[in-house]
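U5 small nuclear ribonucleoprotein 40 kDa protein, Sesamum indicum. Tokens?
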Amino acid sequence: MSGYPLLKKPKIEIEENEEEEEEPEENDDEKMEEQIRNEQEEALVALIEHRTKEVEHLRQRITYYKSQLNDAEKRLEDTQNKLARLRGQNMSKASKNLTNGREEVIVERRSASPINMSEGSSQKQSQSTPKESGNKTFSGSGSLSSSATPTHVNSLAKFKGEKARKVSSEQETVEPQPKGTKRNLEQREHKDLIKLINKSSSPVTIRCQTGCLLSSQHKRKLRSLILCPTNDQLFVTSALDGVVNLWQVQGRGSSANLLSSTDCQSEKNRRWPEDIAWDPHGNKLFSVYSADGGDSQISILNLNKGREKTRVSFLNDKPHIRGIINSITFMPWDDKSFVTGGSDHAVILWTEKDGEDSWKPKALHRHYHSSAVMGVAGMQHKNIVMSAGADKRIFGFDVLTGRADYKHQIESKCMSVLPNPCDFNLFMVQTGTPERQLRLFDLRLRQMEIHAFGWKQESSESQSALINQAWSPDGLYMTSGSADPVIHIFDIRYNAHKPSQSIRAHQKRVFKAAWHHALPLLISISSDLNIGLHRIT
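Tokens:
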């Protein structure tokens, strides 16, 4: 029995050894888990490094393609400029005429496109030289220290005893605005300006520097001044001589060059354009005439056509019955429709059909007005055509419903209507009442004018329908011509009924002063046959 205890002792030691052997197994598991975590971490780090390199590679590719895009754009621009220079060489076309034994060289100015114009040839023409009358700064009213003597030339400039030269290769390219950036009224945001009208006891005047008068190159009194809707450097003038002149603003309004002259007299009676509208794309000019004698009522001047004889076409339809067609304007909601108003009391909507220069007329109304329709315009936020008549009535015709949505009658004959460019409910009507020539209306308010202002005329008490107005781009100011040689400027916030300032800028009556879309500039026309460029400082 003494040996029995000795047998148990090794057993205990074996059990202790087994317990000691179990502990390393647990430690191995922990080490394995840690090793797995380390491997996963290393894998993630490696993946991050790979994806970082991938991002950097893609960024490099983006930078490369951006560089390639810039280079491609430059090559495209260079090619376009080469094309412009090539076309510009055709702008000066010479032909020799022998008259009374003397040789005359007639240089015909023409433009292959209203977009690409030659500066070299236009600078050689006498009409491109401005007549400086000194720089004076106006804050309120002022006058020119000297006058500009207009030089009368034909629509084709004649250079005697000199052979025609080719246009210089140096060109100034009038860059077109990209598609979608033309000033479509739909793209503008509505601004509530009506709440500001008549609220200020003092006007906010502008400083206008008048120093440049150009001969209009028209033989008779000017009639229209229209700025291009897509190209800030182009504008046109027309006159009673039936000629339409295309001009290009130089620099920041220091001068202007005459680019082309086109005879736009009507086919049968050889009448001048009564009013002109530039199509929203800036490629064509639409003119209206008279309905008397079966004459053409609408002409289209295509500025993209080079030869003068092929540039002007006439529409066959003659929806106006009689009298002068007083007004034409394109609709802000559709660049393929325009409206005309005439002395036959009618307002006609013209819609483009399939085909080149094919338009279908439709009478919106013929009996709302009892006298001549003097002005028409389209509202920006609704399909409403405004018309103002010599019968003292103002109508807003809803094209969609086919009825008059707005009706109002005042105490004086109406001569034009002009919607505000920023506040879509605000519009102006020109009347024949002295010192209250301009009336402001809210389309939402019936039988009520918001404000009225005007001016005293020294030379005549009668108000001419040839005097026109223009809104400033911000919609806060309005310019108006006058029977006097004065440009009147009105601040609609001013609570007085007189101009906020007046600028004496011509020798005779001012027909219109238009605000430039992009430059601080006023462009005016006058019966002194001059074009005025007035810089706003």
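The CA atoms of residues 345 and 368 lie 8 Å apart.
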